[in-house]
Amino acid sequence: QSGGEVLVESRVGEGSRFEILLPRARAEAEESQPDVGAGAELVGGSETILVVEDEEMVRSLVGRVLTQQGYEVILATDGRDALERIRELEGQPLDLLLTDVVMPRMGGRELAEAVRGERPELPVLFMSGYTDRSDQAYQLLESGVPFLQKPFSLAALTRAVRRMLDDKWEA
User: Fold this and answer.
1) Backbone φ, ψ for residue 83 (5° rounding)
2) How many angstroms separate the Cα of 103 from the Cα of each of 34, 77, 85, 86, 136?
3) 3-state secondary structure at position 17
4) In what order do the strands lie in the sheet with 72-76?
5) In degrees rounded to 5, what are phi and psi of residue 128?
6) For the whole model, what pTM was predicted?
7) CB hemisphere CA count around 14 (13 angstroms)
């Protein structure tokens, strides 16, 4: 596709050597924006969203994208951290809990159950990259609970968040 080549040299008992040759760029590289999909628009709002994700890169990206779309974003590293943040927000609006399912210390399902006691009206959108038939994420996916499968595009993320906030989620 780019006009490059891959050269492979392999010898039994010695190993393999790969050489990747790519054409030289003709122009300076432009600063790129995250790919959201062909023709896809990111959807925004102004609500407050608590994003709970143990993977720092995913948490940071999701937080940055939602903030750029106008949302007030609060980040937490796991369920226990999220509960602390929720307690700090007492009396302040919180419009959506966006949580990973599988996390250390306290997972997303446990978090959602704990939050129901303090904020029963708070909508919860689960996300996970695990969908083994034996795991929690698969069970949630099968039950019709609002669920965002990783990896997802940024457009899919913002659409799912907006649908949850507008109370228009369809499993």
Assistant:
1) -60, -40
2) 26, 8, 17, 18, 11
3) strand
4) 72-76, 48-52, 96-100, 124-128, 147-149
5) -165, 155
6) 0.71
7) 6
Half-sphere exposure of 143 (CA within 13 A, CB side): 11
d(C-alpha 119, C-alpha 125), whole Å: 15
> Would you give the distance in Å from CA 96 to the centre of its chain?
14
Side-chain-side CA neighbours of 101 within 13 Å: the count stands at 21
Q: Mind listing the pLDDT tens digit for each residue in 46-104?
A: 999 999 999 999 999 999 999 999 999 999 999 999 999 999 998 899 999 999 998 88
Q: What is the rounded CA–CA span in Å between residue 136 and residue 26? A: 49
Residue 60: both structure tokens together: 């940071």
DSSP letters along 72-110, please? EEEEESSHHHHHHHHHHTTTS---EEEEESS-SSS-HHH
The helix or strand, by DSSP H or E, that contains position 34, with its residue range, turns out to be none
Alpha helices in the chain (DSSP H): 56-68, 79-88, 108-118, 136-143, 154-165
